[in-house]
Amino acid sequence: xxxxxxPPARWFWRAEEDVLGKEIxxxxxxxxxxPPAHLDPSRIDRLVLVAGGVGCxxxxxxxxxxxxxxxxxxxxxxxxxxxxKTPTSDIDPQTILFLTxxxxxxxxxxxxxxxxxxxxxxxxxxxxxxxIEHGKLPNRTFAKRIGKPDLLGALDGWRQGSDRxxxxxxxxxxxxxTDEFVDVLKAADGMEEGRVLCEKWW
Length: 202
Description:
26% helix; Rossmann fold; 6 helices; alpha/beta; six-stranded parallel β-sheet; 6 strands; globular
């Protein structure tokens, strides 16, 4: 049985006889949505989505919606940073959670130079920090964890000296990663606290 300190996760991993036939209450809503309730979406020029592992799920919903609408109704740039562990050192995109869906979404964007996917993989067998050249993976795939330079690069749209005034970030992933990245992003030059949003399910 899986061990977890998270109450919902703990509940789902209880013995079958403890959960079958039980009533549960589900709450719908929250503030981790697009567009952010407190910001005018027409003033958001760059959207940075940062996901770790299963935290990718809510961010996929956002990017899925945005690439399906006309480019004039969404931020000029969307940069998705996704960090996860590969199941084995033999990298197969089909075995990486949500990856094929993300690749398809980014590839289907009408303006691919302004919608990017950066993939950060651990447990690859590659040298730490090495760029991974693999025909089925995004062009920006690295054998490492997402780091501060990666976050700051995305804030700038991968261009030096870029204005961050219209940039908004969403972060979703494991607790330690989320807390660390939110601190880095809020402290970055040109960023305001209200333009860094995070989902915390713990």
